[in-house]
Automatic annotation (TrEMBL):
Leader sequence segment: 1-18
InterPro entries to which the protein is assigned, alphabetical: RuvA_2-like
Name used for this protein in its record: Helix-hairpin-helix domain-containing protein
SUPFAM superfamilies for the chain: RuvA domain 2-like
Keywords (A to Z) from UniProt: Signal
């Protein structure tokens, strides 16, 4: 029976391998609702593990966390199982580990293996050879010229339509990383004007692990992840999704920064020292950033420039005129099944931050220096894992978050999370498990459950109730909302995966349709119903499709409906040529009923467009292995809006009813 189940898991792993990301991870990315997300660290990590699978018999807790596919409960359960029963003989032994079901096993299967432990010592010099290294070049361009490229307009884009990215990356196991990234966005100048040095953004990183007492060493660009994100969190972090046990933030404190985003990272140096159960991290950073600078009675900036776009004179005027100097650290004690940590971080800006004088900004941070400190913990007791963090800012305003993950039965998992974040608490670089984008002004209770009633069946559901004690942007009074999700997944045979998802959420906003002098928040209820399937027709051909319907009730005559449906095929046309294609139709009543859909892309890139209005979309991705070391990719995507004279808005408006994007990428491995 175990052999049959193992074979079943292997085949499901092949299906997942035909996709660029597991289906549950794609849903997590869609829930972020960010079309401009540039953090490709997760894609880089999974691509490396797919080529060099992680040996579960020598994996540490940090290695399993870096995989980003296991919950904290599963990680602790696996480490305790391995400590009690020794090394795994074969991969199918994971079925005996508490908390591991068929779905979670097949999700990690393409990225792990079981093998003998190699005790050979590896000094630093030995890591400089034998690692993976490659040079990557990417060109992307919208074929139709938008309004912003009309040089006769008073305000227009100063550069061309090409988006360029080039990167060199070296990685030896998970022990040594170094490389450089250079990026230019469409509309930005290149080796002229404001960009005389060529690319708009340059990034260099060097990162080493496990050098004796030095557990981590970061030089150049890196990210800092502290506690549960109440003080600072730089890595990609997911929120609510069907992975109801993934409510805990998991990451080493220091990680290399290898992406092209221009805001959420540190630039300087960091080090983690470890001795027995103790670890201490110290980091220092000095980074230029952009912001909207105002000069009247006092020179200050009113907002952070996070987009990374420097295409027009006004955008260029704000480019990298500010400096963020930050220092911080972490002190932690960890034993098997238990960890406690103390975190602190301070920032000093070259100019004071003072946001616009709107009522919702009354308690927003104002000044030149900010400070946050916290205490976080995590421990496992029998079949339950408890975790949390309590933080304070410079004025001792508090925020706290606590949760528990429970394996109630072999086929039932539960999660609970409570959060209470004062509207006075301020953390400019935090990213916790909250409904708000920043961890402040929120009280909430989240509950989730996963049930596996029979082989091939899974039911996942969550409820989240939250309150916002103070005003928010477009919310002129205290408000409350809720979010429900129910998903039924079914794998009737080894070649088919189907899921049906229902989601309802209410996020109150000011009533734009009111005739009153003051606009008060009203319920904005959005309901989604989605059906998706994937069928492995044969070993080299995968077919999947989705149909989704949305209902939006904004009151005051703002009701909208939406519909989206696509069909996609992926396969190998030959040993060297592979590809996938999608055909999609969508129709919605407006932007409020928009629907996000994850799209496959070239390596280390993904797209999550928001679809609204009425139109068709198709894309084609092709890859061709020219030689053993050189591979090329091409992506062609087009959206057609029947009956429309223009698409887009502002400087991105295009004359005509279609928008066509082309992307070329080449990778040479050494």
């Amino acid at each position: 029976m175990k052999k049959l189940l193992f074979a079943y898991c292997c085949f499901l792993g092949l299906i997942a391998g035909a996709q660029d990301l597991p289906a549950s991870t794609q849903q997590q990315l869609e829930n972020l609702g960010d079309e401009e997300l540039k953090d490709d660290a997760l894609l880089q990590s999974l691509a490396f593990y797919k080529k060099h699978p992680l040996n579960l018999n020598e994996a540490t807790a940090e290695d399993l966390q870096a995989l980003r596919l296991l919950t904290a409960l599963q990680t602790d359960a696996f480490l305790r199982y391995r400590a009690a029963f020794g090394k795994l003989i074969d991969i199918y032994e994971l079925q005996a580990v508490p908390g591991f079901d068929v779905a979670s096993i097949h999700k990690i299967l393409p990225y792990v293996f079981t093998g003998p432990v190699l005790n050979a010592k590896e000094n630093f010099l030995s890591r400089l050879k034998g690692g993976d290294q490659y040079l990557l070049f990417r060109l992307a361009r919208t074929l139709e010229a938008s309004k912003g490229y009309n040089a006769s307009l008073p305000t227009h884009y100063l550069g061309d339509r090409n988006r360029l990215l080039t990167a060199y990356r070296y990685q030896y196991k998970t022990l040594l990383y170094y490389g450089a990234v250079a990026d230019k966005d469409a509309g930005e100048q290149f080796f002229r004007g404001a960009q005389k040095l060529g690319f708009d953004f340059y990034s260099v990183h060097f990162f080493a692990r496990n050098l004796g007492t030095v557990k981590s060493l970061a030089l150049g660009d890196y990210v800092v992840n502290l506690g549960q994100g109440l003080t600072q969190w730089g890595s990609l972090a997911f929120g609510k999704s069907i992975d109801v046990l993934n409510t805990k933030r998991q990451s080493p404190v220091l990680l290399p920064y290898r992406s092209s985003g221009e805001f959420l990272f540190n630039r300087g140096a960091g080090i983690t020292l470890g001795k027995k159960a103790w670890e201490a991290t110290v980091f220092v950073s000095s980074k230029k950033f952009s912001g909207n600078i105002v000069s009247d009675s006092v020179e200050r900036f009113t907002s952070f420039g996070t987009s990374g776009y420097y295409r027009t004179p006004s955008e260029i005027a704000d480019r990298y005129k500010l400096t963020d100097f930050s220092v911080g650290g972490n002190l932690s004690f960890q034993n098997p099944g238990f960890k406690i940590g103390l975190n602190a971080v301070a920032h000093r800006f070259s100019l004071p931050l003072q946001k616009s004088a709107e009522p919702y900004n009354y308690f927003s941070f104002s000044g030149q220096q900010t400070f946050n400190a916290s205490l976080d913990y995590g421990f496992t007791f029998r079949n339950a894992h408890f975790f949390g963090e309590t933080a304070v800012d410079r004025l001792f305003n508090a925020a706290t978050i606590h949760g528990v993950l429970i394996s109630a039965a072999p086929n039932v998992d539960l999660s609970f999370l409570y959060r209470n974040l004062s509207f006075r608490y301020q953390s400019l670089f935090g990213n916790a498990f909250t409904d708000n984008s920043l961890p402040a002004n929120e009280h909430g209770i989240y509950t989730g459950i996963t049930i596996r009633p029979a082989l091939g069946w899974q039911v996942a559901a969550y409820t989240d109730f939250y309150q916002f004690p103070f005003l928010k942007y477009r919310v002129s009074a205290p408000s409350s909302g809720w979010d429900y999700l129910l998903q039924l997944s079914y794998t009737p045979d080894k070649r088919t995966e189907i899921y049906l998802r229902c989601r309802t959420e209410n996020k109150p906003l000011n009533d734009a349709g009111t005739t009153q002098v003051v606009s008060y928040p009203v319920d904005k209820i959005k309901q989604n119903l989605r059906l998706q399937f994937a069928r492995q027709v044969r070993n080299d051909l995968l077919v999947k499709g989705r149909t989704e319907v949305i209902w939006f009730d904004g009151q005051s005559g703002q009701r909208q409906e939406g519909f989206l449906s696509f069909i996609e095929v992926a396969g190998s046309l030959s040993l060297k040529l592979k590809g996938n294609a999608r055909l999609q139709y969508f129709e919605t009543g407006g932007y409020d009923s928009r629907i996000y859909a994850y799209e496959s892309d070239v390596p280390y890139s993904f797209s999550i467009p928001a679809f609204y209005d009425k139109g068709f979309r198709y894309y084609l991705n092709l890859s061709f292995a020219f030689t053993k070391n050189l591979t090329g990719w091409m992506r062609l995507a087009q959206t057609v809006y029947p009956g429309k004279a223009t698409t887009g808005s502002g400087l991105d408006q295009i004359s005509g009813n279609r928008k066509t994007e082309i992307k070329l990428e080449a990778q040479y491995g050494f």
